Amino acid sequence: MCGIVGLLVKKPNLREHLGAWMVPMLIGMTERGPDSAGLAVFTDLLPDCLRKISLYSGSTPDGADFNWAGLTHGIREHLGIEATLEARNNHAVITVAGPPEPVKHWLKERHPKLHILSTGRSIDLYKDVGTPAEVAEHYHFGNLKGSHLVGHTRMATESAVTPDRAHPFTAGEDFCLVHNGSLSNPYGIRRMLEPHGIHFETDNDTEAACRFLEWRLREGDSLEMALQKSFEELDGFFTFLIGTANQLALIRDPFACKPAIVAETDDYVAIASEFRSLAHLPDIQHARIFEPVPEEMYVWNA
Amino acid sequence: MECLNFDLATTSLTEVNTFLHQKSASKGVRKVTISNPNGAHNIAVGLNLPVEVEIAGHAGYYAAGMNQLASVTIMGSVGTGVAENMMSGRVHVQGFASNGAGASAHGGLLVIDGDAGLRCGISLKGGDIVVGGSVGSFSAFMAQAGRMVICGDAGDALGDSLYEAVIYVKGRIKSLGADAREEAMTDTDLAAIGELLVQGGPTFSIHKPEEFKRIASARALYHWNVDADQEY
């Protein structure tokens, strides 16, 4: 079991409420996923010459005392790349000029235990072990601002309870996926993707789905085309919620083994595994509420 | 004290269900309303007395599960397994229902004004289900006894491996399951649909019994066929 939540606000002036509206949604899914939680939030796009990288230091020897200032200094010194950083405890978002690959390569070499959570012009990502309420408080989810987000509460079934196996999973840039369910052919997917040079970081089944979809998008598929191919290639139970810089998408497996419910108003689209996560949203009593049907694509534009 | 209200925003569900199970009869309560259900699971499960329960909002999983004698109305949608294993009484969902609505119900009537998800009436054992909207795939799978009236469409594999339950469908059937077939309507069928539509309530009066198709078991799976080679 796991819980998923997604929220997209339709008006720019509501972006400041995104995090505050989402926290009760995430906490509402605690019974479905008490062991880890995480979310990806999509903010205003950075200029094309900049990239931001979300980092997690919880697995390094220094943990929350990680020397973030030293990190930016190192990037400037060794790579000659301008970097700015916003850090809080074991989490930081570092913004770098130019292509992110040299920085990521340097990070992996110099700080192999530092976990790169996400890369892009819009995405910030947070995930950790703990109850949804603990993770939300630790990372100040209530203060997050942006156009849309996807979140997840985890009850692990397919791999260990560790921060890097929590959701969302990311691949490439400005792309993430959360999953309720379990895939039965993740190793087949991995064997198909690895000859294309696609590298996996965990043994988690969701990572296979995430990298498959991102690979299709990179090969030129539209999100809809990639989702269609996932129906053909991925076997198992899934409700997926997918975030890109400008879209939020939802699909369910043909047997609809895992739940989902959607509430839509003029102000927002909210998605959750169950209604109890939507019950406290503003004006919910007037929302259009429906259950997404299996093997159908639901895509909302931010 | 004939009527009582519980607010789930301030009262625990255990307290509400315990009252319904153990105290409502002795206190002479005939009607209980439950406000702010907010998608909670297991509301009004396991009732075994002729009480009227009104849930003012959306309910979560297993609402009114295992119901006996009680009449439960949900003024909103329900999650998985509404009225599952109902024995008698009536459960009325005024919104839509998720998967497994009325699963293995032995008796009683489940009315869903909106759509029902997948596996509606799976393993039905004698209950009746009336759906105003459409039902999802694998509905009435292995249904043994009872009746289903579907005023909208049905998804894939309707009535797969059906036993003696009978399904009436007004709309389009995406596909029939193994051993399910359309049969000619009889006067008994027309009377049964008419009766169930009346029991469904006034909103069902727009449907006419003669607009429905009868789906029942061809009974070919009742006996092992060694030549079938898993093809039915």
Overall pLDDT of chain B: 96
CATH class of chain B: Mainly Beta
CATH topology of the largest domain in chain A, what is it called? Answer: Glutamine Phosphoribosylpyrophosphate, subunit 1, domain 1
Beta-strand share of residues of chain B? 15-25%
Beta-strand percent range of chain A: 25-35%
Name the pair of protein chains with the most residues at their interface, and give those residue counts.
A-B, 17 and 19 residues
Query: How would you name the CATH homologous superfamily of the largest domain in chain A?
Result: Aminohydrolase, N-terminal nucleophile (Ntn) domain
Which sheet architecture does the biggest sheet of chain A show?
7 strands, antiparallel
Helicity of chain A, in percent? 10-25%
Tally of individual helices of chain B: 2
**Secondary-structure element series of chain A:** EHEEHEEHEEHEEEHHHEEEEEE
Number of domains of chain B: 1
Structural class of chain B: alpha/beta
* Spatial order of strands in the largest sheet of chain B: 1-2-3-4-5-6-7-8-9-11-10
Q: List unreliable stretches of 5+ residues of chain B.
A: none
**What's the oligomerization state?**
heterodimer
CATH architectural arrangement of the largest domain in chain A? 4-Layer Sandwich
